[in-house]
Specification:
single chain; about 350 residues; Nucleotidyltransferase, domain 5; 2 domains; 7-stranded mixed β-sheet; 14 helices; about 20% strand; globular
Amino acid sequence: MADIKTAQYYIGLMSGTSLDGVDGVIVDSETQKIVNQAYLPYPKPLKDSLHRLTQSGQTTLQNLAEIDIQIAEVFANTASSLMASAKFNSDQIIAIGSHGQTIYHQGGKYSMQIAHGALIAEKTNITTVADFRMQDVAAGGQGAPLTPMYHQHLLNGKSGTVVNLGGIANLTQLTISAVAGFDTGPANTLLDNWIKRNKSLDYDRDGLWARSGFIDQNLLEKMLTDAYFQKNTPKSTGPEYFNLEWLDKYLTGNEAAEDVQRTLLELTALSISHYIEVGVDVYLCGGGAHNTFLVERLMYLNPESDITDTGLLGVHVDYVEAAAFAFFAQRTIAGQTSNLTEVTGAKQTRILGAIYAI
């Protein structure tokens, strides 16, 4: 293990439910400032394998093991790339906080992230903290979202709402005296998979395809009746629930593909806006913050709120979650808890993550 007395930095690594690649940051443990950031995309064959795995939920143990190893290698390569471009060596890094790649999440029962923490540690020669969610689940929690504690740190005592627009949207509501956080439903996962099915594209750049369609009010109303949207907090979900199989249940087959895309974007905007209090400042992050049309819809539906992004809080929209897991790794190494029981529903706070020491 790096000498904590002389080393000063943590690395945070994150791949979300969009399944596109790994975001990485180096964070100064004293100032909590990001000193370097990088993104490494998954190779296309690995990305395709992940999409098949997460959409079908079916695989062999051998295939799962091979994907686990391949993802760990991308995570380790991201950490190495970060250090190389910053001219750092492993002795300067106290630990890596690796979220891994979620392939299955059923809040309150089980949450699986793959990316072989032991292999990351061996390939980088840096102590690695991984598997952050299962301790919270074992303590009766949802295992998600964990980022509200980091959002609380970012806002530094201010009130506001942070919305992460990943594959799934999660929202953190912060007041001076309280914090709440939960998954509101799909953000990009349905939009990405629908355009992939119909146009063989990975995502709808700037929401242009959605903008070309019309809202199918009947479809929208049917989707909004789904039990997840009526469920009380704490709650969490993932693409194993909100996927094309889920969408197909609501389709007649007569819809224009662009109208479905437009309706899915409205579903995302409405399911998030339902929880935004009038007049509260909103900070967006995640890949969906680049979707111009989605941001426009959020602004339209919440005219009393100032909707900006986490850049105003000092963290680029693409790297908030990676920075969060560097933050959590620092807490784990220090023996501090990282789950908020009022968010996840766990019976007690817990020190999160398995430590693979070097």
